[in-house]
């Protein structure tokens, strides 16, 4: 299908909707029959559904780092899952996706989960906090510092905690208790959601968290309101931008908290699915996506706005709270046909929903098997805007603009995937390096792919990664090991 020629006086707007812990099979356009996601599906129906699209890692912080910088997170120390009081992982001098777009004339906003650290040294949450999103390319931000299950449980707007009273200062610790706040370990009778593992410290809003916090009572979020608060801020950015900056393109990085734990959806979504809070949170996420699309429609921005829906890593059921995610899963397969999930080097760890809509350039209802990764956004959008990347920046990002526009059907030649073990995808082949550690993460009941021997799989004939072909394909193994060595030495 050939699209009509469309002429615009500016670069396209860009909206990245970055979901949290959504597996390949958690959206109905990829096979979910237990929860309907019509708004997410609409992006695929009006654009392209990539079936081999990936996050750069099987956990959140390294995936976000790679998306922003165009660099594999395993190249940089300190990019593991960040604590709630982690200092800024991306420093102000780094070239980032938002800084490139900002230089190209875009107005940029980050709304939602950050989880890339803030500030330097010991963070004082009662004073201006920087560096943060605004020092790496965003004109404004409204974020949660880390995750919903970690303290501090507050929103940060630009450089300050929202709603903080000077008479009730915040104190945060990940090494021991601060103040006399009750904890999930010592006060289980105060909980409205029971913890299962690792989430038994300070209780906020009836839910115990990772880490300790005191003070900031007026600033603390209510989990059941979070999706509405974040979605309304994302829509508000679009509305205000159109009102004040009509001739300027915008970039919105909308990083939802759904469906990460603790799963406490808006009351109107509770009980709307058969899968308990996890399913209800998927329905809530779909509503959030619908609100963004509705705003674009209202302002007649659909035609020349790139909308991308994807996730930071694969799925997990019990990730620290007793919320019936395991008990009510039924026949649903969160990772679709792929093995593993969050934390895993198997395909389910990084192969995630990857939907792209751009009506001016992408034919509706397209499906692509091209290998593509979120790490490629930096080089691709630099090409789109004509902004050259300085030498040394975005070293692992590839310009796949033609792949996004369906002009190229191949995508990447290879991709390094990060979990406990490092793996390499090349065409139909998947090589997983030998790695010590348990083969099963018992806390979350996910296969890690850790094994003392190399693993090689043919994903075309064995998408479930069940038949290790390494011994019978020594030449292929040697070739892929050589490529991995070359990538590491780059």
Biggest beta sheet summary: 10 strands, mixed
What percent of the residues sit in helical stretches (DSSP H or I)?
Answer: 10-25%
What's the mean pLDDT score?
A: 96
Number of strands: 22
Span between termini:
40 Å
> So what's the overall shape?
globular
- For this structure, the CATH topology of the largest domain is Alkaline Phosphatase, subunit A
The stretches of 5 or more residues where confidence is low (pLDDT under 50) are 1-8
Secondary-structure element order, as H and E? EHEEHHEEEEEEEEHEHEEEEHHEEEEEEH
Structure characterization notes:
Helix 4 packs parallel to helix 5 (276-298). The strands form 6 sheets. A 10-stranded mixed β-sheet has the order 7-6-5-4-12-1-13-14-2-15, sandwiched between helices. It has a 4-stranded antiparallel β-sheet with strand order 17-18-19-22, with helices on one face. The two termini are 40 Å apart. Mean pLDDT is 96; it is low at 1-8. It folds into 2 domains: 13-161 and 222-404, 3-Layer(aba) Sandwich (Alkaline Phosphatase, subunit A), CATH 3.40.720; 420-489, Arylsulfatase, C-terminal domain, CATH 3.30.1120. The chain has 490 residues and is α/β, with parallel strands linked by helices. It is built from 8 helices and 22 strands. 54% of the residues are buried.
């Amino acid at each position: 299908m050939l699209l009509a020629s469309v002429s615009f006086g500016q670069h396209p707007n860009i909206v990245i909707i970055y979901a949290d812990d959504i597996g390949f099979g958690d959206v109905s356009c990829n096979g979910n029959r237990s929860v309907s996601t019509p708004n997410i599906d609409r992006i695929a129906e009006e654009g392209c559904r990539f079936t081999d699209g990936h996050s750069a890692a099987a956990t959140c912080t390294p995936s976000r780092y790679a998306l922003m910088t165009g660099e594999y997170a395993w190249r940089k120390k300190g990019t593991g899952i960040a604590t709630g009081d982690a200092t800024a992982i991306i420093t102000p001098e780094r070239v980032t996706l938002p800084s490139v777009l900002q230089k190209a004339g875009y107005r940029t906003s980050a709304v939602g989960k950050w989880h890339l650290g803030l500030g330097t040294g010991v963070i004082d949450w009662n004073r201006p906090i920087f560096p943060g999103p605004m020092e790496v390319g965003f004109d404004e931000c409204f974020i949660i510092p880390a995750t919903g299950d970690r303290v501090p449980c507050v929103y940060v707007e630009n450089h300050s905690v929202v709603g903080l009273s000077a008479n009730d200062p915040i104190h945060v610790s990940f090494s021991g208790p601060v103040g006399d706040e009750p904890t999930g370990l010592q006060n289980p009778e105060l909980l409205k959601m029971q913890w299962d593992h690792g989430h038994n410290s300070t209780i906020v809003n009836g839910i115990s968290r990772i880490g300790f916090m005191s003070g900031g009572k007026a600033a603390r979020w209510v989990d059941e309101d979070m999706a509405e608060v974040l979605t309304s801020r994302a829509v508000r950015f679009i509305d205000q931008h159109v009102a004040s900056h009509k001739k300027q393109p915008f970039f919105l990085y909308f990083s939802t908290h759904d469906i990460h734990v603790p799963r406490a959806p808006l009351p109107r979504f509770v009980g709307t699915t058969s899968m308990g809070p996890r399913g209800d949170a998927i329905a809530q996420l779909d509503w959030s996506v619908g609100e963004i699309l509705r705003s674009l429609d209202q302002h007649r921005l659909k035609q020349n706005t790139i909308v991308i829906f994807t996730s930071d890593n694969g799925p997990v059921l019990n990730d620290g709270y007793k919320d019936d995610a395991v008990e009510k899963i039924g026949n649903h397969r969160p990772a679709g046909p792929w093995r593993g999930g969050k934390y895993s080097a198997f395909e389910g760890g990084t192969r995630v929903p990857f939907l792209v809509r751009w009506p001016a350039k992408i034919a509706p209802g397209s499906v692509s098997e091209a290998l593509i990764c979120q790490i490629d956004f930096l080089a691709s959008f630099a090409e789109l805007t004509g902004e050259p990347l300085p030498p040394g920046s975005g070293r692992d990002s590839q310009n796949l603009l033609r792949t996004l526009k369906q002009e190229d059907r191949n995508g990447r030649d290879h991709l390094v995937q990060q979990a406990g073990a490092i793996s390499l995808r090349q065409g139909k082949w998947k090589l997983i390096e030998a790695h010590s550690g348990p083969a099963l993460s018992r806390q979350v009941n996910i296969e890690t792919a850790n094994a003392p021997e190399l693993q090689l799989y043919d994903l075309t004939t064995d998408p479930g990664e069940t038949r290790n072909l390494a011994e019978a394909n020594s030449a292929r193994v040697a070739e892929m090991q050589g490529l991995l060595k070359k990538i590491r030495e780059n």
